[in-house]
Design goal:
Layout (H helix, E strand, L loop, with lengths): L5 E2 L2 E2 L15 H13 L1 H14 L6 E5 L5 H10 L4 E6 L2 H13 L6 E5 L12 E7 L8 H11 E12 L5 E2 L4 H15 L5 H11 L3 E12 L4 H16 L5 H16 L5 E11 L2
Parallel strand pairs: 3-4, 3-6, 4-5, 6-7
Antiparallel strand pairs: 1-2, 7-10, 8-10, 9-10
Helix pairs in contact: 6-8, 8-9
Length: 282
């Protein structure tokens, strides 16, 4: 049964647009989300802490898997300097086009190459890169082990493989109705993302592909303001819960209105956990 088929009158799950961006009908919206989030200071700080943890060095040859519009790719290109090189790959031809345009606009095209590619079958020889990274990719793929195996394959001996991803079930908002909030967040995790528990599963995947010196860095994104980012999370989560039959329209409206009121009154709190895992290729 696919994620969008019905079972007993209930939709099992909604299609994740990030899996098939070009045919989603939402390309422009998804591009806007990637660049808006990429420009946010709190997320930029988390990326910087991740890349410092990873150990990006000048002159490195780096692969950025599932690069989207190239937010991380451009960051890495600045870290590796003029002697380095970054290759960004993504299934979406439209995102690759936008990533190439933005890199050129920012004067980084000489350090970056973008190309469409399947993360589960990378078009590179073994041991091609000093560093292989993926950011917010594993939560949108069902077979993380296959993809991580490919990341390890194309890393050179002694090179680094690192993944940065969130864990959807760790989303926290200070909603008044705890039981309702749990139902909505669980539905968002299980009925929208291909792997909503990706963050907590990464360490085990790294062990399975026999990477060494594995380390984990947990990072927390939190806010006391109900800004655009958290409004998007709340809207998307409640919409998924409605469409999959986990909550009624009235319940979802009540949940959203409660959080919006807390936002207006200066009482909102939201956070989500990200996990950065790195390992060394033997």
């Amino acid at each position: 049964m696919t994620r969008t088929e019905h079972s007993g009158g209930q939709i099992k799950g909604l299609a994740d647009p990030w899996q098939q961006v070009d045919s989603s009908g939402e390309v422009d919206r998804l591009i806007h989300i990637l660049e808006e989030r990429g420009a946010a200071s709190d997320l930029a700080e988390l990326r910087s802490r991740w890349l410092e943890f990873v150990g990006v060095h000048p002159g490195y040859h780096v692969l950025d898997l599932g690069c989207g519009t190239g937010v991380v790719t451009r960051d890495v290109a600045r870290w590796v300097g003029e002697q380095g090189k970054v290759v960004g790959v993504d299934l979406s031809h439209r995102l690759i086009q936008e990533a190439s345009r933005l890199a050129k606009e920012q004067g980084l095209e000489g350090r970056i190459e973008f190309r469409p590619a399947d993360a589960a079958a990378l078009p590179f020889p073994d041991r091609s890169f000093d560093l292989v990274v993926a950011s917010a990719v594993f939560s949108h793929i069902a077979d993380g082990l296959q993809v991580l195996g490919e990341m390890s394959r194309v890393a050179r001996g002694g090179g680094t493989v690192s993944v940065f991803d969130h864990d959807i079930d760790t989303i926290v908002v200070n909603a008044t109705d705890r039981e309702l909030s749990r139902r909505i967040i669980h539905a968002y995790c299980d009925r929208y993302f291909a792997s909503g528990w990706a963050g907590r599963e990464l360490y085990g995947l790294f062990r399975q592909v026999a990477l060494e010196d594995i380390s984990v860095l947990p990072l927390i994104l939190s806010s006391t303001q109900l800004g655009a980012y958290w409004q998007q999370v709340i809207e998307r989560a409640s919409t998924v819960a409605i469409k999959t039959g986990e909550v009624s329209q009235e319940e979802a409206d009540r949940w959203r209105e409660d959080l919006e009121r807390k936002g207006r009154e200066g009482q909102f709190f939201g956070c989500r956990n990200y996990y950065c895992v790195r390992g060394r290729k033997p």
